[in-house]
Amino acid sequence: MSTTKRTDRMDIFIEEGRNIILIQERWQYNWLTKVTPWTITERRKFHELADQRIWKIWGGHFKLKVQGTSSFAEKHKNTTFTVNFDIKWALINPHWKVNLTKIAPGGFQTSYVNWNSKIISLDTEDTKIVTRYAGRSKYKQYPVAHEFGHAIGNVPIRGISHSDEYHDSYRLNGGFKLDYLSIMNIGNNLRNRHLDYVLIQLNSMFANTTFYIV
Fold first, then answer.
1. What is the pLDDT, as a whole number, of residue 164?
2. What is 105-116 written as a DSSP string?
3. Strands 20-33 and 11-15
4. Which of 90, 119, 150, 209 could form a disulfide with 68 if both were Cys (CB 3.0 to 4.6 A apart)?
5. Strand, helix or coil at 137?
């Protein structure tokens, strides 16, 4: 049995038979370039790598249980759900429009997510691990996995969730500027708070039912 919730930024699939919760975003690419034209092979390679990086960082990390008085909660009171994440290359009806720029290897272009406009801006270097610095310490990060984190709700907007790397005045749900290892800062590590927005969506799917991280 599967239960689905479709939203304007992601779809949520609860697969009861496999004890899996899948968070899926449909990405429609706008193929831009500052160098040579895109080939179909290059387009496929970028999407596959982006999906792999996101899966590597986000997939399988969060384990959820459920409590409450609903029939769903009663049925699954001893179930542990694993949360997986996926991006799907969409030609129509996307959750997100992705402006993807092909740049020279080793080049740089600022990447970002516009939550309100549902636009993600990326470049071809974003599937490669990069080194970021805080003081004398070095941190590693996959930029595409970081931006995906914004797209699942970690944005500096009141009432939404967390966005760890921003200045204190923008962190409206608590301060995590010094948590450099966080994927939403300059590292690659997940924190429970990074699932806050997804939990809000999950907890609206069944009356008298609460999902929580274990």
1. 78
2. TT-----EEETT
3. antiparallel
4. 209
5. strand
